[in-house]
């Protein structure tokens, strides 16, 4: 049984249409198979692309403890927190300078000769697009997912590790430079503080000598050689005989102190906390931080080499090619049906 439908003022015999399509099943099948063959050729000859996903998290407090050696409230130098260190690391991880270093020092030398002949900027753009870095989580527990695509599974993982390590090395360099600069500045400030104390002690000694010479002049003038305390009642005299009353110590005692002050080679033993300041200055001046145990990031989980490529998706390509081929085959068969119908009507 056939049914009819009006389309554009012309009657279409659906039975004849289906019969025509069935008669052209070979054409439809050939077009579908051709598409499948082209898709299979593409899917099975294209170089597979692997994707490695590496998760990076912040270091622990123990990992950065060496940076805080000699820092804290007592030192005047603020402690470096995990967030401070991790923010510097993630900045380098996403920086163009880190990628350029990996590209120039690791990726470019490993390329085959024919690829190395391509324009360097084109090669770099392809290399840079292989990295996708995404922040996961909030600021306090930020994790960074680094996805790297490449045609060699093991080399892809290695490339991701290299970028992470390069960013880590650059972070360490900056941190160590900053820490050593802080230590050098602190040592300089302590050195100036020590020099200031010595200068103050020297001036105090000079002031003391001036006062003693004046007291000596008075004691000699009044003929007082011995201290009045030695010959009189001590309760009748002030407990301290300094400044205006210093002459009461007698010229012998005053002269002895003057001679002693003039012979003094250094005021250091008489400066309070001088030795502690010198020790702290030496500490900051000689400070060296071993970066062997310093870590500025951690891997979250094991680094596994991907065993399946993400591209090409062979089954998806074949299914899409089969559907497209069948649709185009049907379209060609429909065109043949309508063209043949028009020829029959005008014959």
Structure description:
This protein is of the alpha+beta class. It folds into two domains: 14-187 and 291-335, Bacterial polysaccharide co-polymerase-like, CATH 3.30.1890.10; 192-285, Helix Hairpins. The protein is built from eleven helices and six strands. The chain has helices at 14-23, 25-45, 82-93, 96-110, 113-116, 120-129, 153-222, 228-231, 251-263, 274-285, 314-346; strands at 4-7, 10-13, 50-57, 131-136, 143-150, 298-299. The strands form two sheets. A four-stranded antiparallel β-sheet has the order 4-5-3-6. A hairpin with a 6-residue loop joins strand 4 (131-136) and strand 5 (143-150). Helix 2 packs antiparallel against helix 11 and helix 3 crosses helix 7. The chain is rod-shaped and about 155 Å long.
Sheet with most strands: strand arrangement: 4-5-3-6
CATH class of the largest domain: Alpha Beta
Which runs of at least 5 residues are low in confidence (pLDDT < 50)?
1-9, 232-240
Main sheet properties = 4 strands, antiparallel
Tell me the span between the first and last alpha carbons: 27 Å
For the CA atoms, what is the radius of gyration? 45 Å
Shape: rod-shaped
Notable traits:
Bacterial polysaccharide co-polymerase-like; four-stranded antiparallel sheet; two-stranded antiparallel ribbon; alpha+beta; 2 domains; Helix Hairpins; 59% helix; single chain; rod-shaped; 6 strands; disordered N terminus; 347 residues; 9% strand
